[in-house]
Amino acid sequence: IWEFSEGHDPKLTAIDPTSGARLWEAHDIQELLPAAKDSVVTPEGTRPDRTPFLPWKIHPVPTDRGLALIRSNGAAAMLDTRDGNTVLWSRKGLPDRIYGTLWDGGLLHIWGVRTKGSSSIDTVIEPVLVSIDPATGSTIHEEILQGGEPQCAVAVDGGRVAIATPRNITMVAPMAPGESPRRQWRHSGPEVRDTNIGWASGGQLVA
After folding, report:
1. Which of 15, 18, 29, 132 is 20 to 30 A from 168 in CA distance terms?
2. Which residues lie closer than 8 Å to 151 by C-beta, 6 or more apart?
3. Side-chain-side CA neighbours of residue 135 (13 Å)
4. CA distance 113 to 46
5. Is there a contact between 151 and 49 (Cβ–Cβ < 8 Å)?
6. pLDDT (tens digit, 9 = 90+) per residue, 87-119?
7. Which residues, in sequence order, are CB contacts of 143 under 8 Å at separation 6+?
8. Strand, helix or coil for residue 30
């Protein structure tokens, strides 16, 4: 059970699905992740869906390796769910504004933007999709996106990911073998502008 509002102190509790008994609790979740570069206590602008961007917010993602904890300001850790205290790995170096996560095809996909520059005047925003190995936390593939900040991502058969920005949809195959291109196609027609939700169904991508 994940308890998290807009505060800074989430709580995680494991419950036995058979008996309902409490197995363990994990507090001080923020301390399981790498320390933030800046101690931010107020929202920093908005996300693509116009909701407040909370740098301290943690996205819990269940995987077959444990529970991935992805903090919005670019830190991540994998928690061993057998005890709720063991950190299998942790890392930085992810987009410093994370907007969403997706677990599919044996990979953990994270999308958002990197901000480059020392001031608001020379800041450059780089939209990006990062696919990482849940076993080690290492980056398998990184796709620089076009068309603005990423808004949503959809898992597609074959371990592929379709990711939408305000101006296009890009199909990425992070685990493509050999020299096969990771970026399979990008569609920029007017019918996909401002896509903010989608799904795969019957061999088709619906946006």
Report:
1. 132
2. 48, 49, 99, 164, 165, 166, 194, 195, 196
3. 2
4. 12
5. yes
6. 999 999 999 999 999 999 899 999 999 987 765
7. 128, 129, 130, 131, 163, 170, 172, 174, 182, 183
8. helix
